Amino acid sequence: MAAPALERPTATAGTQTVTIAKALNMGLRASLERDPKVLVMGEDVGKLGGVFRITDGLQKDFGEHRVLDTPLAESGIIGAAIGLAIRGYRPVCEIQFDGFIFPGFDQIVSQLAKLHFRSQGKLKMPVVVRVPFGGGIGAVEHHSESPESLFAHIGGLKVVSCSNPVDAYWMLQQAIECDDPVLFFEPKRRYYEKAELDPSTPPIPLFNSRVVRAGSAVTVAAYGPMVRTCLDAAAAAAEDGLELEVIDLRTLSPLDLDPVFESVRRTGRLVLVSEAPAEASVTSEIATRVQQECFYSLEAPVLRATGFDTPYPPSKLEEGYLPDLDRVLDAVDRSLAY
Question: For residues 294 and 157, what is the distance between their CA atoms, to the nearest angstrom?
Answer without folding.
Answer: 27
